[in-house]
Each structure stands twice: as structure tokens, then as C-alpha cells.
Specification:
single chain, 368 residues, alpha+beta, Helix Hairpins, Elongation Factor Tu (Ef-tu), domain 3, conserved putative lor/sdh protein from methanococcus maripaludis s2 fold, 3 domains, six-stranded antiparallel barrel, four-stranded antiparallel β-sheet, MdtA-like_BSH, Toluene efflux pump periplasmic linker protein TtgA
């Protein structure tokens, strides 16, 4: 076959782990006895939907008490305001002193402030009473409950640094994230190749990801790279990447390990050579080529990746080189060979053309 430069996709294989697009813990924000669960475990829930109920009796009592205090202080404020207004009318005719008016004004202001404080207390009591109905913060799939009805749950305020009791977890799994890493050395190699023009790396949002399921079958929808870390992990020496994968049927699940074929861009001016044409020995990889004089020449090549059934040769070949594909085992460097075009779809014909022939120089030669 005649070697011709071409551009091929730059694909790398990785192993990644799936994670939820959104994941939220449902926790108790007030203390009390858990009365009941109001959702079906493993079902889809909506944001704001009530999932659990905590006994509201105590918080209802607190609210009622604060409402009563507010009403009492509002009555006091009205009385103090009326008194202050009366004294202001009596001051010009000398029936009351200026000190009496000032004291009445101060009492009115204190009563008004007390009403404001009571209103804040009532609002806080209403908030705490509302927290007895534990709602979902996001829309997603609600998992298994972590605390059964009858258990005492807390808001964690008595333990510095701790949160409330975990009741359940809600995860949004359509779409999903898949997290994987690339070694810093490989990333540097790709960047250097890009600067030389050997490869053209795709933009982040144009880099496609094909997921291979644990049973070996390809997932029917492609994902897109959406995050590349700007630092190298000091422990692993790798850079973290993340892709977003559509998951409308919820076929993929968080925590699942999958294989990934990531299309990072394309390789420029490389040669696709059938795998059977590339040989290896202690020196390295090589191909046998029929030169212009009809003699077989060995050419050491650089290849460490494949595309379909072909090796990707990045160095060692030149455009127009006639690479021997079949009959390679029958030739030796320096021998004369009569080359005929390789027909990749006709295996039987190729095998018959591999028959050794006698050259004029007495050497054994083979057809390619």
C-alpha cells in the first residue's frame, strides 16, 4: 500500500466514576421526634416537597406564646402612645412638665421597640415550626431514609461544627457527571504536540466522551467535557477532568465505574498502516518498504496508538512509501520484490500474492 498522510481523531481511553449532577442531604433543622416519612424511597421528588415530619407540638406552643406576648406588648405600646399624645397637648397650657412629656415619649419608644422584638420572635417561631416539615431542597431521586419514625433527631446546634441529623439524600441523575484523570506527563506531551502542529486539541466544550458500560457495550449517548482542573494533584500527579453525560432513561447510576473513549481532537499528518504490516523486534517497530529500485528496505517507525484496525504511524514513513502489507514474512532487507497494490477486502487474493518468487539476483522475494 502507498503511504499517504491523513488526519485522524486523537482518542484516549480512561476509567472514570459517575457522580450525580446534583446531590443534596436532607437534614433535620430543628430537634424533635420524627413522626413519619411522606415519600416513597427511590422515587422522584420535587423541590419543596415534604419528605419527613417532626413532631410540631413544642414549636406550635412556642409560636402561640410569642403571639400572646406580641399582642400584650402591642396593647402597651398603644396605651403609651395615647398617653404621650395627651401630655403633648397639655404641655402648652402648663398642666404637665416637660420632664413628664419626655418620660412619656421614652416609654412610647421602648414599647415600640419591644413590639419589634416580639415580631421577630414570632417570625423565628414560625420558621422553626415550618422546619418541622422537612422538604426536599432539589428535584431528584430520594434515597433510603436514614432514620426511622419515632427516633429523636437534632439540628446539631449543641455540637459545634456538626450539622443536623441526616434523614435522606436526594440526587439528580439526569444528566450525570463522570470524573476521570489524565497524567500530567501525558497532558504535557499533548500540549507540546499541539504547539508543534502535530495535533489539534479540541476546545473543552467540543471534546466528546463515549462511555463504555461495565458489560462492555457502548452507551448510546455521547457526553461532553465540561471541566478541566488548573492544578496537578500532588499525591497522584494527575489532572482531574469531568464530563457531562446525558441520562434521560436513568440507565447510568452514580458511583458506577465506566471506561471512557475521549476524543481530544485530531492528529495531523500521520499514516494509517494495517496492523499486519508493522513488525516488532528488540530494536522497536518497523515496516518493510519496497524502494524505487525494487529492493526491500526496513524503516523504523514510531507508533503507540491505533485507529480501528490500523496502527497510527507518527514517524519513520514518508508520503509515497510502498509499505508491504502481505508477504512480509517472506522478504528480507535488500531483496528484490515485485509489489502489487494491496486489496484490503480480498484476503484470499492477498495470501496468494504472498508467494515467494525467484529474483534475477538469486534472492528470494515476496509480493506485497
Amino acid at each position: 500500500m502507498e503511504a499517504e498522510p491523513s488526519n485522524v481523531p486523537l482518542t484516549r481511553s480512561f476509567v472514570g466514576r459517575l457522580s450525580a449532577y446534583y446531590s443534596a442531604n436532607v437534614t433535620a433543622r430543628v430537634s424533635g421526634v420524627l413522626v413519619k416519612r411522606l415519600y416513597t424511597e427511590g422515587s422522584e421528588v420535587k423541590a419543596g416537597q415534604t419528605l419527613f415530619e417532626i413532631d410540631p407540638a413544642y414549636y406550635q406552643t412556642v409560636l402561640n406564646t410569642d403571639l400572646a406576648t406580641l399582642a400584650q406588648d402591642q396593647a402597651t405600646y398603644v396605651n403609651d402612645r395615647v398617653t404621650a399624645d395627651r401630655y403633648h397637648k397639655l404641655l402648652p397650657i402648663g398642666s404637665v412638665s416637660q420632664q413628664t412629656v419626655d418620660d412619656a415619649d421614652a416609654a412610647q419608644r421602648s414599647a415600640a421597640a419591644k413590639v419589634k422584638a416580639d415580631e421577630a420572635a414570632v417570625e423565628g417561631a414560625r420558621v422553626n415550626l415550618g422546619y418541622t416539615k422537612v422538604t426536599s431542597p432539589i428535584t431528584g431521586i430520594a434515597g433510603q431514609q436514614q432514620v426511622t419514625a419515632g427516633a429523636v433527631v437534632g439540628n446539631g446546634t449543641t455540637d459545634a461544627g456538626s450539622g443536623g441529623t441526616l434523614l435522606a439524600t436526594v440526587e439528580q441523575i439526569g444528566p450525570l457527571y463522570v470524573n476521570f484523570t489524565i497524567s500530567a506527563a501525558d497532558l504535557i506531551t499533548l500540549k507540546q504536540a499541539q504547539s508543534k502542529g502535530d495535533v489539534a486539541l479540541a476546545a473543552q466544550n467540543k471534546t466528546t466522551v463515549q462511555v463504555i458500560l461495565p458489560n462492555g457495550t457502548p452507551y448510546d449517548q455521547q457526553g461532553t467535557l465540561d471541566f478541566t482542573d488548573v492544578s496537578v494533584n500532588a499525591t497522584t500527579g494527575a489532572v482531574s477532568l469531568r464530563a457531562q453525560i446525558p441520562n434521560p432513561q436513568h440507565q447510568l447510576l452514580p458511583g458506577m465505574y465506566v471506561s471512557l473513549d475521549v476524543d481530544l481532537g485530531q492528529r495531523n499528518d500521520v499514516y494509517l498502516v494495517p496492523q499486519q504490516a508493522i513488525q516488532r523486534d528488540t530494536v522497536g517497530s518497523y515496516a518493510m518498504v519496497v524502494g524505487a529500485d525494487g529492493k526491500v528496505v526496513r524503516k523504523d517507525v514510531d507508533t503507540n496508538d491505533s485507529h480501528g484496525s490500523d496502527w497510527i504511524v507518527t514517524g519513520g514513513l514518508a508520503a509515497g512509501d510502498r509499505v508491504i502489507v502481505t508477504g512480509v514474512q517472506s522478504v528480507r532487507e535488500g531483496m528484490l520484490a515485485k509489489a502489487t497494490p494491496w486489496r484490503g477486502t480480498d484476503k484470499d487474493t492477498r495470501l496468494s500474492q504472498s508467494r515467494p518468487v525467484q529474483s534475477s539476483g538469486g534472492h528470494r522475494a515476496g509480493r506485497s
